[in-house]
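Every protein is a chain of amino acids, and every chain bends into a shape of its own. The protein below has been through that process, and both of its lines are reproduced in full.
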Amino acid sequence: MNKRQARYFAIGSTLVATLVFLGLTLDSHRQFPKLTNAQNITPAVTLGKNVWHKNNCINCHTIFGEGAYYAPDLTKIAQQRGAPYLRAFLKDPSKFYDEQRHRRLMPKQNLSDADIDGLIAFLDWVSRVDNQGWPPRPITVTGAGPGAGGMALPQAVVAGSTTPAGASISADADKNPVALGERVFRSAAPACTACHSIVAGADMAGPSLAGIATRTQQTLASPAYKGKATDLEAYIRESITHPSAHLVAGAMYSADGVSFMPNTYEKDLTSEQIGHLAAYLATFK
């Protein structure tokens, strides 16, 4: 290739690259309203965005990967935690974390009820933006209650198999209720792993599920139990579909008589999926 050919090649390549760039830019702007749910930007969402900026939340947290990495990414927090949890947390973070024990530094912002509702609306809008799967992993901050251990979860629990030791998993996992239940545990929306660990003492937004089978027997035998279940599987089903049927006394997993557990699983999961999930959780002795 001589100098003239090289020059023409460079000019042509630049023009082609420029046209591709402009085309992609125009296509992105064309899709922005759909991807960002622009039609759902209500006055409450706008108020919440202003509260977010006014209180410098981005100095510690990230959304869409933008901000500081000192505290958890909040892109999907509204789906992972739910409004009751967020409202109680924003009113008084100290009820969830002990700064001396857990080294949590979330300050009490003294937000008004209107500001809290707006911030939750903003975070809910953020969580519904099509951001191509960001963040790439679930929130793994522990210490959601007074008795929480405040430790980081083992990587095997966060990213690997969550099958409990001793559980019998057949080679034909597609037909094994326990194996199918493990899949539901990791893939439900929101994923159970976003709020629950299977490590004893590693409480998150919800209690650790280690030993749930043993604890359930104690709960069912207690006069304080207010639900309708009579056995382990029924109790687990009830906890999934009607999480406020029985609230754990003294634990920071509910507020004003409402569990922080999402109440949408009965609608979002099939009865068969709930059965598989119950079979899986029943193996945690």
Remarks:
- Confidence is low (pLDDT under 50) at residues 142-162, 165-171.
- The beta strands are 62-63, 66-67, 254-255, 258-259.
- The longest strand covers residues 62-63.
